[in-house]
Amino acid sequence: MSKIVAIINAKVFDGENVIDAKNVTVKDGKILNVGGPIPEGAEIINAKGCTLMPALIDAHSHPNMETLKQNMHFGITTTFQMQGYFSEAQMLELKENTGIAESLKCFFAITAPNGHPSELLPPAVLAKQKEMMAKTGIKVNKDVSTPEEAVKVVNERVQQGADYIKIMVEDGTIFGYPGTPDVSDEVIEATCAESHRLGKMTVAHAMTIEAYERAITGGIDGLMHLFIDKPHTPEIIATIAKSGAFVCPTIIAGASIIGDSDASDFVKDPRVSSKLNQDWIDSLSKHIATYPQGKTEYLLKTVKALHDAGVDILAGADASQPAIGGMAHGASLHHELQLLVKAGLTPIEALRTATSIPARRFGLHERGRILNGARADLLLVEGDPTTNIADTLSIKRVWRQGVEFKFD
Q1: Quick one: which of 110, 113, 114 has its CA closest to 123?
Q2: Of 35, 92, 160, 271, whose CA is between 20 and 30 Å from 297?
Q3: Is 12 domain-assigned?
Q4: Residues 276 and 328 sit within 8 Å (Cβ to Cβ)
């Protein structure tokens, strides 16, 4: 007989709103019922004083198998990989291992020859990357100069199993390498057109207003990061809203690039530091700091303007490796939620950016919501993050596909 778990007496945030139901029952990896009768013989979890919500989704990450487990410690059961690779064996494990977060993937983003992020990587790192790719069998074609090459690489990504296609629209200005080779408008357009023909969404790395405008003109579905070179204007906000594209602002990444992130204060919270090794703790005390002329204040105001204009906002942390300061897997998504509230979103609006909105925009209709029949990816926290966003860190229990995660 399948195990049935009933979580009772909880405040329930269903991914959109707080609902009247206090009980949620789980069976066979799915939500059996919300607010219905508790089946006889169910294991009872009394969640009085706690909030039950969908497990979190990190819409911008650069994970590996180890950091996918770290995500689970922070209540994140799904991530969107935005640059990286997985072997075939790892991709199978992503589906089957409920002890790690599942990761959607784009593999390597399309970029110009010698384009971003190669300007940031030492030659030894690039050589090691190519060697590792050769061992895993992952195709590394990513340098694109023509629309024809873009079409070829998009098809390669789809054959690899990419869930969406990413393109770098980056001239290096904000990273201290102005003049970095960038893709042409024709390449952006061809990438979007071929991806859409094959039923795949497109997202763009874009961190200047010009990059935003070029990506939108080319037909992009989602914009990763915020522009940090200028404050927003009514015109650019209207352009984004009219396009229907979503924005994953990664405020914390922008603040690190500017050099004034408050991550060093965030990591002092024992709910954060107790779950991180020293390398990640140290990382949160560093900054990328390549664009000090920017202002985090502008990022916060831009997020609020986008939200007020009806643009879908997705929460993403942009964590990759400890050497890149300001972000840590798992922890920094909670930091991003706090920054979204600081920008002017309500706690409930911020919670939607890491639950129902990314699930809807990426077609994960069984996730990001607490509904009858939905996948039982759940997060139980002490307190009430719908009124105090920092309570997302007071994690009591995490389930992926109905299987409870065992904390180390």
Answers
A1: 114
A2: 271
A3: no
A4: yes
Q: Is 165 helix (H, G, I), strand (E, B) or coil?
A: strand
Residue 169 lies in a domain: yes
pTM of the model: 0.96
Q: Quick one: average pLDDT of 278-298? A: 95
pLDDT for the residue numbered 310: 98
Task: Find the helix or strand (DSSP H, E) in which 336 lies.
Answer: helix 331-343
- CB distance 9 to 353 below 8 Å: no
Asked if residue 364 has pLDDT above 60, the reply is: yes
* Cα 201 from Cα 212, distance rounded (Å): 17
Mean pLDDT in residue range 167-193: 97
Over residues 223-234, the pLDDT tens digits come to 999 999 999 999
**Residue 99: how many other CB atoms lie within 10 Å:** 12
* pLDDT level of residue 120 (50, 70, 90 thresholds): confident
HSE (side-chain half, CA atoms, 13 Å) at 336: 35
Model confidence pLDDT, tens digit, residues 28-50: 999 999 999 999 999 999 999 99
Q: How far is residue 394's CA from residue 354's CA, in Å, rounded to a whole number?
A: 16
Which residue type is seen at 121?
Answer: L
Supply the CATH number for residue 349's domain.
3.20.20.140
Q: How far apart are CA 299 and CA 339, in angstroms?
A: 10
Does some domain include residue 313?
Answer: yes
Number of domains the chain contains: 1
Instruction: Give the containing element (helix H, strand E) for 201.
Output: strand 201-206
Question: Tokens 């945030």 identify what position?
Answer: 13
Whether residue 286 contacts residue 306, with contact meaning beta carbons closer than 8 Å, is answered with no
Q: Which SS3 state, helix, strand or coil, does residue 101 take?
A: coil
The structure tokens listed for 87 are 């072997």
Closest to 370 measured CA to CA, from 51, 94, 59: 51
Sheet arrangement for strand 4-8: 30-34, 24-27, 4-8, 43-46
Q: Nearest CA to 100 among 405, 328, 408?
A: 405
Q: Is residue 92 part of a domain?
A: yes
Q: Which structural domain range is residue 279 located in? A: 56-368
Dihedral-angle region of residue 21 (phi above 0 means left; psi in -120 to 50 means alpha; beta otherwise): beta
Residues of the chain by 3-state class (helix, strand, coil), percent to 5: 35, 20, 45
Q: Which amino acid is at 293?
A: Q
